[in-house]
Write a structure and sequence with these properties.
alpha/beta
Length: 185
């Protein structure tokens, strides 16, 4: 399988990011956990699309006695809420074990785990995953967002950078005549 058709997978410990990213922390403290989760999902949706990652964000069943569930946000982003009593770390470890097999079969070409939990870092690297800290992911998301905005701005710029390109053809013709010294009677 070619590298182009085999995706890179990004696994994100959701609450770890919320506790580390400044604006998510502020949002959690002022507007609540649900609002900060929504902002994280939005940021990762854009980042995943820009990078071409198949991303899974994992949240613990934080203080809720419920079954696990999964939500497909886009074709690049899946959100998973663990079972009651199961940690995001445990879920990510199990997922890394299955991804290791997919890596060996060339079904994926790399997988990255984003967490700042040191024990988790060592565990996932043992499965062959790349590790990314919460702060590194934050900076990568911000940089990708900036690049996407720049790319969008370039597409919106006018065909030419000169003022003459912004005026109608008749006025441009008259200015040309004036510049060349042609008198119109």
């Amino acid at each position: 399988m070619s590298r182009v058709s085999a995706p890179a997978v990004l696994l994100v410990d959701g609450y770890n990011m919320i506790g580390a990213w400044p604006y998510l922390k502020r949002t959690r403290d002022t507007a609540g956990l649900e609002a900060s989760r929504a902002l994280l999902i939005e940021a990762l949706t854009n980042y995943s699309a820009f990078q071409g990652f198949a991303t899974q964000v994992v949240f613990d069943a934080h203080y809720q006695n419920c079954c696990s569930n999964q939500e497909t946000v886009t074709e690049n982003l899946l959100v998973h809420y663990t079972d009651f009593g199961q940690t995001a770390d445990t879920y990510i470890e199990k997922l890394c074990a299955s991804l290791r097999q997919q890596l060996a079969q060339n079904l994926i070409y790399r997988f990255i785990v984003a967490t700042s939990d040191r024990a988790q870092q060592l565990m996932v690297q043992g499965y062959g995953a790349e590790w990314m800290s919460a702060h590194q992911l934050y900076y990568d998301v911000e940089a990708s967002s900036f690049r996407a905005r720049q790319k969008h701005k370039q597409g919106k710029q006018s065909a030419g950078r000169f003022l003459a390109n912004a005026i109608d053809a008749k006025a441009r013709q008259r200015l040309s005549e004036l510049r060349m010294g042609v008198k119109k009677s």
